[in-house]
């Protein structure tokens, strides 16, 4: 996968140089390639437990879900973009209502360890600066029964 991405980037660079593309055009093409590879990490709408609506890009939107004995991780928002249409800051509002088991809202950023943003029966609101590169907001459940409301602006 990385090898194919590297080849694509080199080909785009060669084409851009030979056709007279500006630096901004080259960066836009590169960002589009990086973005498309990041979409594969997001959990598909079909596999999600709830309803997701994206905002201006894959980093923002709303997600409302009802879970029954769910164990696993859903990657709801995020990507690998170097430029975010929504800007470099996002405001996250999350409400987790737990009947049984446990749930966490997590942030995966680059190669850093996952950061727990919100846990069982909590309401959470924070504004975060999004780094360039890989950033994902996920929901991790362990036999979780309950509901989650997530809004990222």
UniProtKB/TrEMBL annotation:
PROSITE patterns (alphabetical): PROKAR_LIPOPROTEIN
Report the domain of life of the source organism. Bacteria
The molecule here is called Lipoprotein
